[in-house]
Design a protein that fits this description.
The complex is a heterodimer of chains A (876) and B (109). By secondary structure, chain A is α+β, with helices and mostly antiparallel strands. Chain A has 26 helices and 21 strands. A 6-stranded mixed β-barrel of chain A has the order 2-3-8-5-7-6. Chain A has a 6-stranded mixed barrel with strand order 13-14-19-16-18-17. In chain A, α7 packs across α10 and α11 runs antiparallel to α17. By secondary structure, chain B is of the alpha+beta class. The N and C termini of chain B lie far apart (34 Å). Classes of the chains: A alpha+beta (876), B alpha+beta (109).
Amino acid sequence: MFKSLKRRLRPSDLESRIDQEMRFHLEEHIESLVMEGMSSEEARLTALREFGNVEALKEECRDSWGMWFIDSTIRYLKLAVRQMIKHKGFASVIILTLGIGIGVNTMVFSVLNGLIFKQMDIANWENLVRVSSQNLQKSSGQRGVSYLDFRDFQEQNNTFEGLEAATGSQVVISEEREPPIGYDIRFVSSGYLRLLETHPFVGRDFAVEDHKIGAVPVMIIGYRVWYDHFAQDPDIVGKSVTANGVPATIVGVMSKDLVHPSWPECWMPLNQDRSLDRENRHKRNLQLIGILKKDATIGKARAELTVIAQRIASLPGNDESFEVVVQTNRETIPKSILILIFLIQGSVVFVFLIACANVANLMIGRAIHRRFEISVRAAMGATRWQLVRQLVTESVALSLIGGLLGLAISVCGIHLYSRLGPPGIRPFMHMLSMDYRVFAFLAAISLLSGILFGLFPAIRATRIDLNSTLNENTKTSISRRGGKLTGALVVFQFALTVALLTNAGLMVHGFLSGNSVNEFIPHDEILTAIVPRTTKTGAPSTNGQKKLQFYRDLVHRLKELPGVTHAAVGSSMTGLIGTDTKRVEIEDSPIRNSKNAEQTYVSVQSPDYLSALGLPILIGRDFLDTDETQGEHVSIVTKRFADQHWPGQSAIGKRFRFLSSRDSGPWRSVVGVSSNILAAPLDPDSDSVIFTPLDAKLPLLMFLLVRAPNPQAQARAVWEVVQDLDPAQPLRLLQTAQELKDMKENILSQVGSLFSSFAFIAMAMASMGVYAVAAQSSASRVKEIGVRKALGATASKIQSLMVSRGIKQLISGMVIGLPLAFAIALVLENMFSLSPKEPLVIATVALSLLSVGTLACWLPARKASIANPRDSLRME
Amino acid sequence: MGNKSNNLLLGALEMLILKALVSEDRHGWGISKRLKQISSGTFSLNIGSLYPALYRLEKKGLVESYPALSEKGRDARFYTLLPKGKKHLEDQLANWREFSIAVEAVILS
């Protein structure tokens, strides 16, 4: 057994054994013939003749030995390498094409891989779960867990290695003579940071005493806070600051590379959260994370926590309508991000498939040139299977080298990106590092692509009629059959290219149109900020009237600043960033099903907002501070809204109301009609907007808008006004509207340019494919063209004859590609609110593709048609 | 790629080779000589079938080979029948007899 295994593993032994046996047999044979009376020379020739084809015999011996696969693969590889060396140019074009394709695919895959499998750089990431709760009676979103429930879960479970909690909120850090700044903070339970393997790189972790109730407040700050707020103060540890009005000591700074779920900027012990309710089970605001024990499954954890929760709920006074939700981290990744990455992956796979089709076409071309060689091999006794294997081995060898190149490209690409990419990317780099999944992907696409682009050409190339190939000299017999396959490949390439180009076009179009909407807004004269109104404890302020008064005072004080022409606050910055929508019912046109009522963009704004944006009021008036105080509800609508609902009439005095799931709001009358503004820059129908004045029911986040000729210079003054009104009031994200716009467009333009570059590569590759096919076909028809010309056909006639075939392929490609393009566009529409039926984009894509493709067909046709018929006829 | 009659012939060839090894261990040349001799020249075994068949038999574990010197002192490789091969031969012979009786019955009827 062992012996036979050893023999099997060493093909060279087998080889020498076969040689030796053949030699022995031959010698004996010759000797016996000599003994029968032949001359030795005669005997040798006779024996050799009887021996037949020695190579074929050896081959058969190897085959029957069962060694053939490894052994012959090695021989085929040797042959393949010889072919590559012989045709260096051909091989390097293929390797380069595949290498780039594989490299880009691997890069994108490593992002996908990182996102799904390695979101955080901790050893137990796979076992990390999130625990939340959900109200069974309302289909509202997920809620947190109450403090008492958390304690019970923590003490009674057997499936968790650790289960920890955090509350998220705002902290306002203030120092003497410095304006207070608000930051995101997590108040964390005692094992939280240890569970996530996050520790400060300067200073210390929270100690056990820090977590006790009534302990001296301590705080760990994030790297950015240290960098921006404290200017990298080397003596930061031990520094005392005021956090939400209470003195706290900074004990540590988190590392720059820290990646934390939802990225807070500061951390404090859970018991320092003054809004934490340790008695009330109905107050569900803790976010729980846990790491499962090695032998526990998520199902087990779910079952166990559900049992505990049911036991708690059955106690008197508790709410039975909540159920526990246990999710893996992967389940909490936003769908939109996953879809986006999958789309990018899909498009690079498209590009790669187009590249493979090109390579397949090249291989077909090569196979035609190698027809003679293949026929000779077949005549020598090689079976079709052996020939196909040889050709596929060659293509796989090429694709594997391409894969190595791709590996190098992706490693370099990731490295370069981490060094030259945006600075915010650094904490995520661990996500992009190579792991076994990435290598498996790389190996799989290298191998598969080799088989994919090698197999069909190989099968076709070996379908040969020995007699005709060896005797005949024309190339027509084979290239006509090849034409079908290459034609199909071209159609396939163009279908993919249409899909890619259309969507890239839609994105770029969306980006450009988003860029040029609301052009009346003086972005560079507007300063924006977020003013979250919170109480001293960091919890949202609940006193509506006081809140309203604060914002009114703020606006008045800001307007008094020298240089400031307008100041306003609102629930959103309509025209600058997204606006909420509400369902609307118009008076005297009742809606039967409130679910079907029309959604309209709605924004709460103080007086002066519209004029600050430069949006004129066409009829009626702006809001007044006295609006909403006399029990009458008013609104300003855009011209589009007025024209939609009261066509041909004056909208002033007309009434409508908002519908919500529970009740209908009060009737609101229109006091002004403004000109149109797009609430969602990418949606051309978003110019039907309603503005309502400030009232006592303001949302937590309010936006501030100050217009001045030089807004950046006003930033400090704005700070001072806010601080003067309330020293604890934070102001977040103070930036100009221009900065806001740039940031927002950045994402779309990056995604758009990514898609465009893929699409243009795809177009270039597909056109190259068409060109190669056309050139090949015209080369094989030289004789035919010569005859046609000799018979009197004009050059233009020949050109149109030859181009028409290419155009047919292009059009079939488009017919197949457009539905595919629409399918992808529908997905994009939901994500970016792009309009998929943009006829201009589709027409542009179709026309440009058609013209580039036609050019690629025409160039070789022209060359063939202007050749002298005498030369063409003599050529073969 | 093979068809039935091919398989039958291959099976017959293997049976003949095994039969030739019953009396003594032989090298490839010896086997072909022996078959020619006992069939009075009817089976002139093609070398192109002999060696692949020998390798197949060895792979199946029916025969074993070992290097040794031939009668004339040349390096040769001898094949010996293994117990499993003997068993296989007996089965095959029984089958063959059954088959040839059946064929004969049909032909003579």
